[in-house]
Specification:
Blueprint: H1 38-53, H2 56-67, E1 71-78, H3 90-94, E2 98-104, H4 115-128, E3 135-138, H5 147-158, E4 162-166, H6 173-183, E5 192-195, E6 202-207, E7 213-216, H7 235-238, E8 247-251, E9 255-259, E10 263-270, E11 273-279, E12 285-289, H8 290-298, E13 316-323, E14 329-333, E15 337-341, E16 345-352, E17 357-361
Parallel strand pairs: 1-2, 1-4, 2-3, 4-7
Antiparallel strand pairs: 5-6, 6-7, 8-11, 9-10, 9-12, 10-16, 11-15, 13-16, 14-15, 14-17
Helix pairs in contact: 1-6
The structure holds guanosine-5'-diphosphate.
Guanosine-5'-diphosphate (GDP) binds near residues 140, 141, 142, 167 and 241.
C-alpha cells in the first residue's frame, strides 16, 4: 500500500507526484522494501563521493571560510577516538565562532561510565586543544541519544544565524545529518546544494526558515588513524559497532599481546599486572611470550592472528612508554582502541607506520 511507505532516512511518506516535496521517489524506483527518498539517497552517497575528492588544502579552505562567518559551528567528534577525530587547525580558523561540540558514538563506551564524567573528560581535552565550546552534548546518531536536547541547543545558540556542521570522516556526520533531516522534514522548502566559495564543492543546505539554514560540510580521513591503514572490508572488524567489552589480561614481563595482526604490545619491564583492553568485539586479541612473538607474527595464518590486510601494512613502527608507580593511564592506538595500564613498568607498542600511539588521561 503506497501511503504506508516511509523513507528510511527522513521518515517522510514516499510519493512520486512532486519532486519538490518531502519523500519524493520516482515511480520506477519504488520496488524496495526499505525505500529511501531521492534526497536522502543523494545525501547518503554525497559524503562518500565528495570526501574522496577532497584535498587537505580544500578542506582547510572550507574550514577557514566557515571561520569568517557569523554562524554557529556544530563540531562532531567521535568519543571512541576523540583525538583522532579532532580537526587539526580548527581553533586557528574558527576560534572566535560559537562552537557546539557533539560527542558522538556514546553507545560504544561502557554504559557504566557516568555521562557527567565523560562530559567533563571531553571538556578537559577540548581545553587542552584551545577550544572553548558554548556547550558539549553527548550523543549517538545511531541511537538518537539526546536529540531533543541537541535541537534545543542548536536553536538556542544559533540565535537566528546559519549553522555549519563540521567533522572528520567517520565521526558519524552523515548518520547525524540524516536524523536532522527527519527532524526538520516538515520544512516545506527542499534541501538544495550550494557551491562553496573558492572550491568546486557543493554543500548540502537544509533550510530552517527563509533566512537561515544548516550547511553540511565535507570531512577528510585522518591518516594517523588505523582506519586509514586497513582495507575497506576490514573496517567492520576494527570499528566498534556496539558497546566495548573490556578484556582483562594478567601479564608478566616479557609477554606480548597482539591485537589481530594490526598492533602489538610488549610488556618489557615490570611486575605481574593487569591490563584491560578496549577494542571492537570483532578484533581478536592474542597473548603470547615475547620470545615467540615474532615467529607467531610470521606464521600468522596458522596461528589465527587474523591478519587483517597485512598486505597493506608495509612497516611496523615501535614506541616505548614508561609508567611510574601510581600512574593510571590509557595507551591509545588511534582508530583502533586502548589499553588501560595501572602499574610501574615499561611497554612497547608496535603499529603500522603512520598510526598515532599515545598515553592519555584515563577515560574509563
Ligand atoms: P561520516 O563519515 O562522518 O559521515 O560518518 P557515517 O555517518 O558514515 O558513519 C561512519 C561509521 O560510524 C559507520 O560505520 C556508522 O555505522 C558508524 N556510526 C555512525 N554513528 C554512530 C553512532 O552513533 N554509534 C556507533 N556505534 N556507530 C556510529
Amino acid at each position: 500500500e503506497m501511503s504506508e511507505l516511509r523513507c528510511g532516512g527522513c521518515g517522510a511518506v514516499i510519493q512520486s507526484e512532486d519532486k519538490n516535496k518531502p519523500g519524493y521517489l520516482p515511480e520506477n524506483a519504488l520496488n524496495k522494501d526499505k525505500p529511501l527518498c531521492q534526497r536522502c539517497f543523494k545525501l547518503m552517497h554525497y559524503h562518500q563521493k565528495m570526501e574522496s575528492h577532497l584535498s587537505k588544502e580544500d578542506f582547510l579552505k572550507i574550514i577557514a571560510s566557515i571561520g569568517d562567518k557569523d554562524c554557529l559551528v556544530v563540531y562532531i567528534v567521535d568519543l571512541f577516538d576523540f583525538n583522532g577525530s579532532l580537526i587539526s587547525g580548527l581553533t586557528r580558523h574558527v576560534g572566535f565562532n560559537d562552537i557546539l561540540v557533539l560527542g558522538n558514538k556514546r553507545d560504544v563506551l561502557p554504559k557504566s561510565l557516568k555521562d557527567h564524567r565523560l562530559n567533563m573528560w571531553v571538556r578537559r581535552q577540548l581545553k587542552n586543544e584551545g577550544i572553548k565550546p558554548v556547550d558539549v552534548i553527548l550523543t549517538s546518531g545511531k541511537k538518537k541519544l539526546n536529540f531533543d536536547e541537541i535541537f534545543d541547543a542548536i536553536e538556542e545558540y544559533r540565535k537566528g544565524r546559519d549553522v555549519y556542521v563540521v567533522g572528520m570522516t567517520n565521526v558519524g556526520k552523515s548518520t547525524f545529518i540524516n536524523a536532522l533531516l527527519k527532524h526538520y522534514s516538515d520544512v516545506e522548502q527542499t534541501i538544495t546544494t550550494s557551491e562553496f566559495p573558492g572550491t568546486t564543492l557543493d554543500l548540502i543546505r537544509i533550510p530552517f526558515d527563509e533566512k537561515s539554514a544548516l550547511y553540511d560540510s565535507p570531512g577528510i580521513m585522518n591518516e594517523a588513524q588505523m582506519t586509514s591503514h586497513v582495507a575497506e572490508k576490514d573496517l567492520k572488524t576494527i570499528v566498534p559497532q556496539s558497546e566495548l567489552r573490556p578484556m582483562s589480561f594478567q601479564l608478566n614481563a616479557k609477554q606480548t599481546l597482539y591485537m589481530s595482526g594490526l598492533a602489538r604490545m610488549d610488556y618489557l619491564e615490570g611486575e605481574k599486572a593487569g591490563f584491560v583492553c578496549y577494542f571492537s568485539r570483532q578484533l581478536k586479541i592474542h597473548r603470547t611470550k615475547m620470545a615467540n612473538a615474532d615467529a607467531l607474527f610470521d606464521n600468522h595464518k596458522e596461528l589465527k592472528l587474523y591478519p587483517l590486510s597485512v598486505d597493506k601494512i608495509s612497516q611496523m613502527k615501535s614506541y616505548e612508554f614508561s609508567f611510574k608507580k601510581g600512574d593510571k593511564k590509557e595507551v591509545f592506538i588511534s582508530g583502533l582502541g586502548f589499553i588501560s595500564v595501572n602499574t610501574k613498568g615499561k611497554l612497547r607498542i608496535s603499529v603500522p607506520e603512520g598510526v598515532d600511539v599515545f598515553v592519555r588521561e584515563c577515560l574509563i
